[in-house]
Amino acid sequence: MSLASSFERVQASYIREWVRFHEHTIGPRPEGDGMTTPEHSRQSAARDLAAHAHGSTHAHAPEAKRTKGERRTRTPVHLPDSVVDLYRMSAAILAIHEDKCASGAIIASLSIPWGNTKGDHELGGYHLVWPRDLVNSAGALIALGHNVLARRTLRYLMSTQEADGRWAQNLWLDGTPYWNGLQMDEIAFPILFAEMLRREGKLEDLDPYPMIRSAAGFLLRHGPVTGQDRWEENGGYSVFTLAVEVAAMLVAAGFADRHGVPALGAVLRETADAWNARIEEWTYVRDTELSRRVGVDGYYVRVAPDDVADTAPRSGGVISIKNRDGAQAWARYAEIVSPDALALVRFGLRDPNDPRIVNTVRVIDETLRTHTATGPAWYRYNRDGYGEKEDGAPFDGTGVGRPWPLLAGERAHYELAAGRPEVAMQL
Question: What distances in angstroms separate CA 133 from CA 41, 46, 171, 251, one per listed residue?
Fold first, then answer.
């Protein structure tokens, strides 16, 4: 079976399991709830987003005076009372992060971590646009049915792409680059985003092919090694970045075929096949101290040095650990793991029951999972230093990594792909 057909098969399986999860969580719609069609649900979602974006959550707004039952009738799907407010708040937060002047520009966050330590001289921050975060936010809006905003985001991406096909690591609202690191997943994600809109039939008058062709060309010329991983800390063979790159090249091949350029489509597929075939060579390690402790034969690492395939690697198999100092600032790459490996399943490159994936999930859970009052949570990677100090003092370049709610969601995505929606619900 070709990689392209396998990609489509696993993606289709993932979608089926998401539908099962959706039905399991939401349950059957009650008769007469007024929301019996997907189109009605999308319209309701758009109305909810518009209402929230214009302040309907304030105490003086009519919405605040509604009963729970009345509010539920305005929710785009019939949800349990326990999650209605969470759903609506998430939709509102996504909407308010779009700039009101730079149409389609969704910043990473309005928050300022450790804000009490920041001064006016520090221009950077989460109030910038990261293409990766932009695509993930806009992808959630597509799931909500808010395709108008999603199309605005695609236009923004098309207008801020650089001449060589890349996007800046992050940028100001007007498209001016701020940091200039090279993160290959940020070049690949906009391709996947265009495909999301195409599959929904919501591109309308937009033709993203020139953007896709340019971005795919950049991937061909500069991939698969990335200058920085998605955590903006290490270069090399990042398993997360590899998954996004390969998936994006398959999508780009489909666009090339539909635009009458089958030769380019063939090159993209062949390259995707070649990279996909070497993912284990680059990022799967066996018989390490960690694998023996967990009781598995091997696992996918977080990131491998770019010389990992060389006969005499100059790195010595060691990577830097950012936000740490002294002896803690370096580690053998084979001992550092991350939930990033689950991207191989999420983007359709590996079956959730692949023994290598199952082994890696065991290692991830054994090494990175912690238990909180509200459920399990996961760290970005072992030995992470991005977080406040042990005593709670603000992060100042070094610290102690903390669990990320995002990773619980990604862990749940894996359970959906594996056909276990009940487990996903618990996460």
Answer: 25, 21, 12, 20
- Which pair of structure tokens corresponds to residue 138? 């806009």
* pTM across the whole model: 0.83
Q: What are phi and psi of 360, to 5 degrees?
A: -65, -40
Cα angle at 248 between 242 and 249, to 5 degrees?
A: 90
**Residue 325, C-beta contacts closer than 8 angstroms, at least 6 positions apart:** 398
Number of residues that make up the chain:
427
Q: What is the H or E stretch that residue 16 is in? A: helix 3-26
Binning the chain into helix, strand and coil, the percentages to the nearest 5 are 50, 5, 40
Place of tokens 């990604």: 410
pLDDT of residue 84: 83
Contact (CB, 8 A) for 146 and 200? no
CATH of domain 281-427: 1.50.10.10
Dihedral angle, C-alpha 401, 321, 341, 404, nearest 10 °: 10
Among residues of the chain, what percentage have pLDDT more than 70? 81
Name residues whose C-beta falls within 8 Å of residue 327's C-beta, 6 or more positions apart in sequence: none
Alpha helices in 33-106 (DSSP H): 38-53, 68-73, 81-96
Calculate Rg over the CA atoms of the chain: 22
**3-class DSSP state for residue 335?**
helix
Q: What is the mean pLDDT of the chain?
A: 85
User: Residues 226, 232, 233, 239: what is their CA dihedral angle, to the nearest 10 degrees?
Assistant: -50
- Whether the link from the prior residue into 62 is cis, omega within 30° of 0, is no
Tell me whether strands 298-300 and 237-238 are parallel, antiparallel or unpaired. unpaired
